[in-house]
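Researcher: Structure prediction, please.
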Amino acid sequence: MTDSKQAFYRKLRRYKYQLVQDYNVTIAITGKTIDTDYISLTPAGELTVKKGYAWDGPSGPTIDTRSFMRGSLVHDSLYQLMRLGELEHKKHRGYADDLLKQMCLDDGMWKVRAGWVHWGVTNFGQSFATPSAEPDDEIFSAP
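Model: Predicted structure follows.
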């Protein structure tokens, strides 16, 4: 084994949470094969968010509760696929927003709160789903 002279790293400035194991869910986006470092989707709609995936959790003026975490994970991963151009944002954004609401309800969120969550992403989420909106992280080296 040889020693490397430099270590390369990046600062994580946008994320609060990181998966410690893969998360799998079947969604209604079918017919596509996508495989990135942290997210994959099969033609049958099997979405896998892979171990190590980092996301910011629930966004906006809200509280990060257990009833919001799964939904925010899946919603953020779908929006990321839209930003990367892997999913058509005009076609799939509404579904991602609706899925967030449904997952929150399934996990015990009050209907009124889930409605506000849905209203927020529907009215203010467009810029986060737009292709090429994925900011590049600056890569550093040491020494």
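Model: The mean pLDDT is 89.
Researcher: Thanks, that helps.
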